[in-house]
Amino acid sequence: MESAATRTAKPGRTAPSRRLEAIPPYMFAELERRVSAKRAAGIDVISLGIGDPDEPTYSHIVEAMRVAVGDPANQNYPANRGREEFRAALAGYYARRFGVELDPSSEAMPAIGAKECIYNLCFAFCDPGDVVLVADPGYPVYTGGPTLAGAEPVLLPLRPELGFAPDLDAIPAAALERARLLFLNYPNNPTGAVVPDGLFERAVALAHDHDLLVAHDNAYSEITRDGYVAPSFLETPGAREVGVEVFSLSKGFNMTGWRCAAIVGNADAIRTYWRLKTNIDSGLFEAIQLAGVAALEGPREPIDEMNRIYARRRDLVVGALAELGVEVAPTKATIYVWAPVPDGHTSVSFSELVLERAAVVVSPGSMYGPSGEGWFRISLTTPDERIVEAVERMKEHLR
Ligand SMILES: Cc1ncc(COP(=O)(O)O)c(C=O)c1O
Helices in the chain by DSSP H: which ranges? Predict the structure, then answer.
């Protein structure tokens, strides 16, 4: 039996919990710190690091918010289930955009951003000892969420030769036995890949065979170009029986600061997520839900215009990289270009070189997981003239 003498010392008053200690510092925090230090030293740093749209939220959404925020009826605690109008607007959007019919009363509810939703799905479904299957490289919350929930993230390398799909047949049997959740994300951050043929179908089969829940993160479905139209996971036959989709308004509607997203799909899973949320937060501000309705029911032109802007910037970046001898496939979706680092460099050493020589921030691929080693990510969410300046500097200082 443990005696007072053998008991591990109690951590200090402000020591983080072991769970928090287990995850590395949030990568963007470190990036921001380095950029701030350079800027404080008077250096004009151009950040192509963070994926936060530079263009404003579309004006009809802002107008809807202006009206909604002034109405006292929208100022109380919201219900976690969400307003009827918001759920109906989501169902309408899914029907028009993806051909997916949702029951707005049971198959859709708001989330306070996709990030919240992804994190809380881990707490809703996982106990210590459970496994969460996550893409590597991938959005960091897919690994941080399970770790904080006491579960184990098992990394599935995204294979360039498979179109940046994980090899679902290569998942160890022991991991599948304990797996509760599989996170997928197409169009993909950080690789910019679109969903490879057959992957969603294979994920549905895997979920059936191993009794796990697929959570597809559809944060980038509206950011596409070159004629590509991204599907919803829920279009896949059988998907609704085994999965949910996280849909975010952040990127498609330039609404990252608004924290407006939704979870759609399997009704039982959504009920479990709702049950967790009733213990944690008090729902999405109703005025934001009404602004979300304006977004979902509004015109398509502003999205098309944003996609033209990202296509132009993508071409600028891909062209400049080619001049530096870095060949990349022009990504058909997302706000990112994913490129291999030149020979002789690691992801970090190349990103540091770019920061030191050109005062340009690119994200080292290894920040997104071990399989991101050997790659770097450029975000297209910087005004055209700054992108031009950044690529000119890179051409001048890195050649
Ligand atoms: C793949 C992916 N999922 C989710 C998010 C976060 O979305 P939200 O702003 O809705 O929390 C991001 C943000 O960069 C992302 O890249």
Answer: 18-21, 27-40, 59-69, 84-93, 114-125, 141-148, 173-178, 199-210, 239-242, 267-277, 286-297, 301-323, 347-358, 384-398
